[in-house]
Amino acid sequence: MKIKDTKLPGVLILEPLVYHDHRGYFMESYNKSLLEQIGINIDFIQDNQSLSKEAGVLRGLHYQLSPKAQTKLVRVCSGAIFDVIVDIRQGSPTFGQWIGVILSEENKREALIPKGFAHGFCTLVPNTIVFYKVDQYYSREHDRGIIWDDPEIGIDWPNSNPILSAKDQMLPLLKNAELNFAVKE
């Protein structure tokens, strides 16, 4: 597995080794011991999956407040997404900055998103299935988000008129969002 750092500390892009033959392919999408060897010790306790029927579905930007904050390992089983991660750790030198990466069934990349980062994605093709592991259970009480088109964050989404849930349409700007993450010293 190749592991690539990003400009956001702790956010990693994982590229699993893929073994192809005449039948198709095989890959390990998650190997706890390999991650532990590089100092990442996460106890994933729940798997989630979403299907977006159309291209242009945007989900996010979501996060959960501490103590129910989630680390996520995100991958695409079918289709493709523009995956976005935003640093929401107060005091961080990269606070409010974002990265975007294409995750697809073809490139098989995965995004490891630590606590303290908001996450969202926009589907690039119809019938996209996104799968992700989390290390905390969902908590409605701690569920929060940031509006997808916050001008201060300035995300360059691939779709300027996405398909949004009613909930995601009502999310606040980052400057008005409830945050309780700080940079660990």
Automatic annotation (TrEMBL):
GO terms for molecular function: dTDP-4-dehydrorhamnose 3,5-epimerase activity. Belongs to the dTDP-4-dehydrorhamnose 3,5-epimerase family. Catalyzes the epimerization of the C3' and C5'positions of dTDP-6-deoxy-D-xylo-4-hexulose, forming dTDP-6-deoxy-L-lyxo-4-hexulose. Transmembrane segments: none annotated. It comes from the Bacteria. PANTHER family: DTDP-6-DEOXY-D-GLUCOSE-3,5 EPIMERASE, THYMIDINE DIPHOSPHO-4-KETO-RHAMNOSE 3,5-EPIMERASE. Its EC number is 5.1.3.13. Pathway: Carbohydrate biosynthesis; dTDP-L-rhamnose biosynthesis. Keywords: Isomerase. InterPro entries: RmlC-like, RmlC-like_jellyroll, RmlC_Cupin_sf. Pfam families: dTDP_sugar_isom. This is dTDP-4-dehydrorhamnose 3,5-epimerase. Homodimer. Coiled coil: none annotated.
